[in-house]
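Good morning,

Attaching, inline, the backbone tokens for the sequence recovery test we're adding to the shared suite. The designed sequence is right after.
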């Protein structure tokens, strides 16, 4: 039986959490002990205390070192959350005491990067001593990082999560999509394009089951056209731009904000193809139950000037 909450709280110490993280990093007691300032016997005793506290084995001894058990992975994940929260607490407390700064770790999916960068530019002008970490990744990866405490918030979509109840989300804006291509693409000067005219093009797309990919597949399905077989899959805008510049016959589906920013630098052109289906909107997502810091609130106000209700995907407010 899992020990009671009171039992765990009374016996677990901050040094235990740090030791768990270091064991996960080093996969050895010796390496972890050195990182936390303990002898190997001291680290072994501390690990025994931790396992006794949780009432289960957290690591298996293998020829590759200490391998976390399923319970170990769970405990380590939450140890990282607590450690990150304490670290953020220190930064935020220091900022409050000094009246400036703070720290913020924020993520965005590719299409929302221009929107986030505009808000971040405003934020750094208001708070020049603020430290920021910015991560661009898929919604699934960003949600995992929010859950683990590695990110404070992100512009992404909670619709891809199998556990949407873990998050609180606020609508930011709808996403409009555009098809971009090499500046010398033969169809760039057409008045209006149909999907049939691009059906034989080489498409650069997100991998299967991602929202933007699903939307493109829906466009082909609704038009009664077979979806292209020979694709290039990537979530990197740099890879997309490089391919488009090197291959005039390639086309790619991106957000209109990304497309406009690339066009400004004469990197690509926007083809006159209207995307009919509607994608999931951008949401500003945080971990449910987490306390918003002053830095988070400042960024939120810049992204959502007139703030609406926080609405979870499960319909709670």
């Amino acid at each position: 039986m899992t020990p009671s909450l009171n039992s765990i709280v009374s016996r677990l110490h901050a040094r235990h959490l740090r030791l768990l993280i270091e064991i996960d990093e080093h996969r050895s007691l010796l390496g972890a002990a050195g990182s936390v300032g303990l002898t190997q016997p001291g680290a072994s005793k501390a690990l025994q205390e931790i396992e006794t506290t949780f009432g289960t084995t957290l690591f298996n001894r293998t020829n590759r070192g200490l391998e976390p058990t399923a319970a170990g992975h769970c405990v380590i994940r939450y140890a990282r959350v607590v450690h990150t929260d304490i670290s953020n607490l220190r930064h935020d407390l220091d900022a409050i005491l000094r009246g400036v700064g703070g720290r913020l770790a924020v993520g965005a999916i590719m299409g929302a990067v221009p929107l986030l960068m505009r808000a971040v530019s405003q934020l750094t002008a208001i708070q020049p001593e603020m430290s920021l970490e910015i991560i661009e990744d898929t919604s699934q990866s960003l949600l995992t990082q929010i859950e683990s405490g590695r990110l404070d918030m992100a512009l992404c979509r909670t619709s891809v999560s199998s556990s949407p109840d873990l998050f609180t989300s606020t609508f930011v804006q709808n996403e409009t999509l555009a098809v971009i291509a090499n500046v010398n693409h033969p169809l760039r000067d057409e008045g209006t394009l149909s999907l049939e005219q691009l059906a034989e093009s080489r498409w650069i797309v997100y991998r299967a089951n991602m929202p933007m990919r699903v939307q493109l597949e829906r466009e082909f399905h609704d038009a009664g056209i077979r979806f292209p077989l020979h694709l290039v899959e990537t979530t990197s805008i740099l890879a997309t731009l490089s391919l488009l510049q090197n291959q005039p016959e390639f086309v790619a589906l991106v957000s209109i904000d990304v497309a406009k920013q690339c066009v400004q630098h004469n990197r690509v052109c926007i083809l006159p193809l209207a995307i009919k289906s509607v994608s999931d909107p951008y949401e500003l997502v945080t971990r449910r139950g987490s306390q918003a810091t002053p830095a988070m609130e400042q960024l939120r106000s810049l992204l959502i000037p007139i703030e609406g209700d926080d609405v979870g995907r499960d319909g709670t407010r």
